[in-house]
Amino acid sequence: MDLTTRCPQCGAEFPISLQQLQLRKGYIRCINCAHIFDGYEAVVPASAAEPSVPPAAPAVHAPQGEPSFSASSAPAAAAPGEPRFTVSGPGHAGSGVPIRVREPASAEQPSFTLRDTEQRLDDGRGHTVGQAHSVGRDAHYDYQDDGYRDTGSGLYVEPRHGHEAGPEFVHVEERPGGIGLGGVFWSLLVLLGLAAAVLQAAYIYRVQIASELPSLRPALERYCETLGCTVEYPRRIAQIAIMDSSLQAVRDGQEAAQGSRLMLNVVLRNNYDRPQQWPTLSVELVDFSGTVAVRRLLAPSDYLPELSLQRPFPARSEVRVSVPLAVEGVQINGYQLDKFFP
């Protein structure tokens, strides 16, 4: 059904259907000034929307000469307070035709009042429409789809469920809260995934973590015992320098005709500010022609005592080692020494 509403901003009145008000939750835009307002609160009753203003009384032109008016010639049946005028003139002498003149309609807007007892359509915080906003006393609305029924004279207003009034474009749809069984399941999966990611990162970067945080090395070593891995120390071969080296022949009094014993002395220094792994030494023995006759790779277990193998190469420290070398059938004239990490 069509209603008539008035814009509170500019006072323009225009029709709108009840279905449109319900679809827009009561908020509409003025067609004159584009002001958004609550259409339910600005509904104008049908009697005030189209005021019936009677047409003005036709003007009566008297003939030339001054007409005479007689108040005594008015009929006695005239209603009190309603003026009547008698026009006398040529051709109307003695006729005494009464003429009614209506007072002009008041230019003031009709006043509306809300009745004392308001009719509430729901128990929420929705708007309440009184008798003054009713379109008609015999209006009957039956909402069987949503379970609401109103047999009175008020308009149906959709409940707000605790929301403050506002335009439709700022309305945020509520979703049911709470965490169900699916939410708990996915939360557990996320936690398990995070734990697996942390353990994998600890396994891959165990050397870097132990180097930067030495206090975590015991925990990482216990973790690696279950996985069969080791937590090694950093390997910065550029920070390990050979400070001194020498190769000496060892004579036993009776030198073998086809063999000799040599002693390699080396001084290693760790210039790094953290402990490192022990490097592997590469020794190349050359003959008188400069050709490499013998090449030996000396692992840490070959040149370090058992006690030193259980510890890393200390930071900012030097170590002196001596390694015996046995050579047979070759005359050695020199050597080349290098270090590397396998």
Automatic annotation (TrEMBL):
Transmembrane segments: 184-205
Region (Disordered), start-end ranges: 50-144
Assigned keywords, A-Z: Membrane, Transmembrane, Transmembrane helix
Any matching Pfam family: Zn_ribbon_5
Composition bias, Basic and acidic residues: 115-126, 135-144
Domain Zinc finger/thioredoxin putative: 3-38
Protein name: Putative Zn finger-like uncharacterized protein
Organism: Pusillimonas noertemannii
